[in-house]
C-alpha cells in the first residue's frame, strides 16, 4: 500500500538536521511553527522533539477530528475536584529514607529544621528532589510519601 503525502511532506534530512541546531535556532523554529514562545524552562531535547513533531503534524496532518473531539470531551470531564491528594505522612526528625534515582542511591535524614541528603543540608524534601533530578518536584511525592489519586 502506498502512502500519498501532501506537497508539504517533511523531508527526512530536515528532521535529521534538527539535532544540529543550537538552542537559539530551536527556539526560532518553535516560534515559527507554534506562533508562540516555548515554555520558559524547556530543555533542548524537549524543544527538538516538539519541533520535529509539529513539522510532521503540519506535513502529514494532525489528529482526526473525531479523536480531537474525544480528547476535548475527556479533558472537560476530568474535573479537577475529582482528583485528591492523600494526606502526607508526618515525618519525625531522625527518620531515614533511601531513594534510588538512575542507579544512584540517596540517603535522606529528616532533621529538626532541615533535611540531610548524602551529608549535605537542604531546607526541604523538594529542594533535595530538585538537587537529585535537576527538575522541580514535590519532595513528598518524589520520596513516595504522598500519591495523586483519581477518585
Textual characterization of the structure:
- The chain has 151 residues and is an alpha+beta fold.
- Among the domains are: 12-60; 96-150, no CATH class.
- 40% of the residues lie in helices and 17% in strands.
- The chain is built from 6 helices and 6 strands.
- Strands 2-3-4-5 form a 4-stranded antiparallel β-sheet, covered by helices on one side.
- Residues 1-7 have low confidence and may be disordered.
Concise overview:
The chain is of the alpha+beta class. The chain is built from 6 helices and 6 strands.
Structural Rg: 22 Å
So what's the overall shape? elongated
Average of pLDDT: 82
Number of distinct beta strands: 6
Please estimate the helix content. 40-55%
Question: What strand order characterises the main sheet?
Answer: 2-3-4-5
What share of the residues does DSSP label as strand, in percent?
Answer: 15-25%
The structural class is: alpha+beta
Sheet having the most strands = 4 strands, antiparallel
Q: Could you name the key traits of this structure?
A:
151 residues, alpha+beta, four-stranded antiparallel beta sheet, two-stranded antiparallel ribbon, 6 strands, 40% helix, elongated, disordered N terminus
Question: What secondary-structure arrangement, pairings included, does this model have?
Answer:
Elements: H1 12-17, H2 23-34, H3 44-60, H4 65-77, E1 83-85, E2 96-101, E3 104-110, E4 115-117, E5 120-122, H5 125-133, H6 139-142, E6 148-150
Helix pairs in contact: 2-3
